[in-house]
Amino acid sequence: MSDRLIIFDTTLRDGEQSPGATMTEDEKIEVARQLARLGVDIIEAGFPAASPGDLAAVKRISQEIKGVTICGLARANFADIDAAWEGVRDAEQPRIHTFIATSPIHMEYKLRKTPDEVVEAARAAVRHARSYVSDVEFSAEDATRSDRDFLCRIFAAAIEEGATTINIPDTVGYATPQEFAELVRYIQEHTPGIEKVTISVHCHNDLGLATANTLAAIQVGARQAEVTINGLGERAGNTALEEVVMALHTRKDIYGGVLPRVVTEQIVPTSKLVQRITGIHVQPNKAIVGANAFAHEAGIHQDGMLKHRATYEIMTPQSVGWEASRLVLGKHSGRAGFSARLKELGYGDLSRERIEELYQRFIALCDRKKTVTDADIVAIVEEQLAQVPEQYVLKGWRAHSGSDGRAEAWVKLLVNGVEREASASGNGQIDALFKAIDRLVGRHCELASFHVDAVTPGEDAQGEVSVHLRCGDHVYNGRGVATDVIEASVRAYLMALNRAALTSSAEVVS
Ligand code: KIV
Ligand code: ZN
Where does the pLDDT of residue 416 fall: very low under 50, low under 70, confident under 90, or very high at 90 and above? Predict the structure, then answer.
């Protein structure tokens, strides 16, 4: 049995199904490029039949991202498979992933098909996909609530038709580790032809067991893990890539040296990119990529760490891409020092104009803040990179409030190049400012989430605000960074509205 684990990343497909995680085409390209740098084997780039936008994004990723397999998802019908092929046909290494549900509840209520009809649909789907491409994955949706012998029967049929990977999804996150390992073993022992294909697992985290279930399956022979960055995904999410990869590296004694080809130092940069683009932040105590994952607070731990790191650290922060924070850049550092630091922080390919914009923000920040750290620089760079073309540009704002809770605000924006201003009152300064902006923009979107973080400790810390706005059926995220939390909120709100404006104009054009 091979000791290489294939990493199938579905951040751009299952991950994007998280509420509010919708990404623009350019953002998907950015994530896909970083996933290739991270060293994943397969990028599930989307579900091309779902929408023309999904198809266009999968197609562009297939054309632009090289050195990695690009996969498109398809239900077990010809139209979906044709769309998936259209999406991946230009990839260096294309894959079609087709699926159908196999549990009694899904077959009866969702598909309204008999088990025989489901097997026939799976056969026809795999055969059709194989007429396009030699790399075909077949998944039995809701496998963990399916009859085991039925699973073996449908997998054998898919293999007979030419499937090269057989995926066992725990679609609703129902399995427990021992039970899941037994299921994988049963399938291995009772499915004709299984030795010719790769066994894959795809776990959801509804009971917080996705990583444990994935690792249990790897221990008995699964050699492809379907994962997302930060565990993003439907409901409670999918298995987190970073957790599986680092468990395999850290516990080679248990997993027998089964390893992926992932470049572990790229884990944290990838996590941060996905957080920035989706606006979905991981909790501070999240394994591997949370802000506190390597912070040692208790005196007894700090003492132990100073004597020998391994007393309280099972892997080094550097091994997953955390950098020790270095001080100090000031306004006397100049452009050269600033752009050298940008390079060190992983932003080596920014245009001259972009560096100049960032430098101006950095200088303004130096006037407001005693010490500017790497974290401050990363925060302004990430905010700048998340910007979409701006229909609404902030030119000025003012707000005041009193103990009666009432607040008054004034805002000046450039709206499509024309300077406009408005005032409003509200329940607190941020509410009043958002209302004044709504007047200028001429629409109101529901504030679905509002989140404030300090970039660094200290009284003069920059505040980082993330918002999600629900505008009709879509949710847009925005992010703003400033030493004044109210200004950061206005910036975040405008970024989300600019994203909404971009999408509506794209919809009108297409
Ligand atoms: O969770 C699931 O069953 C899926 C399939 C499409 C593999 O995402
Ligand atoms: Zn899934």
Answer: confident
